[in-house]
């Protein structure tokens, strides 16, 4: 008798293993929905507590097949670099009385499949009107500059443009754009997210009311969805802070009053 046949142990049928993986993936999906920050190690612990025999490596392989990734904190977009320039915050206690008196801009992450893109937007402080946005796959100053140039082209120039202290807003390319356009640059105080609260709230509204309930898989689809939401937000969505009117009605009526 051959020695190999003595120690041979038959493998389980692939179908049985596949069924077990299907059950595990269903449980992994439930755990991920409830605890999106859990990685393979923690999910494996939860599965073991439920009676499943699953190692962290097995769970990690299944998560990769499912394209499931933990929602880990991403690098801060508000941190200045060592060489970026900084400016004082100019909007504290300032009365905003008309459109284009002050704008704010910021960048946020937008998840798309297993990766993310960067969304830059510019908002008018007086009316909450979104004057421009730009979606890109890199966080470079040139993308922010293009977004702001588009806002200037379509809506003119504000007196003040505020941002956080992110490195792109302190870059020479961005600083020189505002200086050349005679726009006064303002920056939030350190760790003062409330200084740019209008932009932060709009990003939160976009994600909670639109992106989390809409399916998309390509950058082109995502850009169209954001564009449609910006149109809805500006032209149709009423706001209590605007006496239940839309941002567009406040922005353009204010422009007309100022012109008159």
TrEMBL record:
It comes from the Bacteria. Residues 1-20 are annotated as: Disordered. GO terms for molecular function: nucleic acid binding. Coiled coil: none annotated. GO terms for biological process: DNA integration. SUPFAM superfamilies: Ribonuclease H-like (SSF53098). Residues 95-255 form the Integrase catalytic domain. Involved in the transposition of the insertion sequence. NCBIfam families: transpos_IS3. This is Putative transposase.
């Amino acid at each position: 008798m051959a020695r190999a046949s003595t120690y041979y142990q038959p493998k389980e049928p692939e179908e049985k293993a596949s069924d077990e993986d299907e059950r595990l993936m269903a449980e992994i999906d439930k755990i991920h929905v409830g605890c999106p920050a859990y990685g393979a190690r923690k999910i494996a612990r939860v599965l073991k507590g439920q009676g499943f025999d699953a190692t962290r490596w097995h769970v990690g392989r299944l998560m990769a097949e499912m394209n499931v990734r933990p929602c880990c904190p991403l690098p801060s977009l508000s941190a200045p670099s060592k060489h970026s320039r900084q400016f004082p915050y100019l909007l504290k206690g300032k009365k905003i009385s008309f459109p284009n008196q002050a704008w704010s801009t910021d960048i946020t992450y937008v998840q798309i499949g297993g990766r993310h893109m960067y969304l830059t937007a510019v908002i008018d402080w007086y009316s909450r009107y979104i004057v421009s946005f730009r979606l890109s796959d890199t966080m470079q100053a040139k993308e922010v500059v293009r977004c702001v140039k588009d806002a200037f082209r379509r809506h003119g120039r504000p007196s003040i443009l505020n941002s956080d202290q992110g490195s792109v807003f302190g870059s020479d390319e961005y600083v020189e754009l505002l200086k050349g356009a005679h726009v006064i640059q303002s920056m939030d105080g350190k760790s003062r997210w409330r200084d740019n609260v209008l932009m932060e709230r709009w990003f939160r509204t976009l994600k909670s009311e639109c992106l989390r309930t809409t399916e998309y898989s390509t950058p082109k689809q995502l850009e169209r969805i954001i564009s449609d939401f910006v149109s809805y937000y500006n032209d149709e969505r009423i706001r209590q802070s605007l006496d239940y009117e839309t941002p567009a009605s406040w922005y353009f009526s204010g422009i007309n009053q100022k012109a008159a």
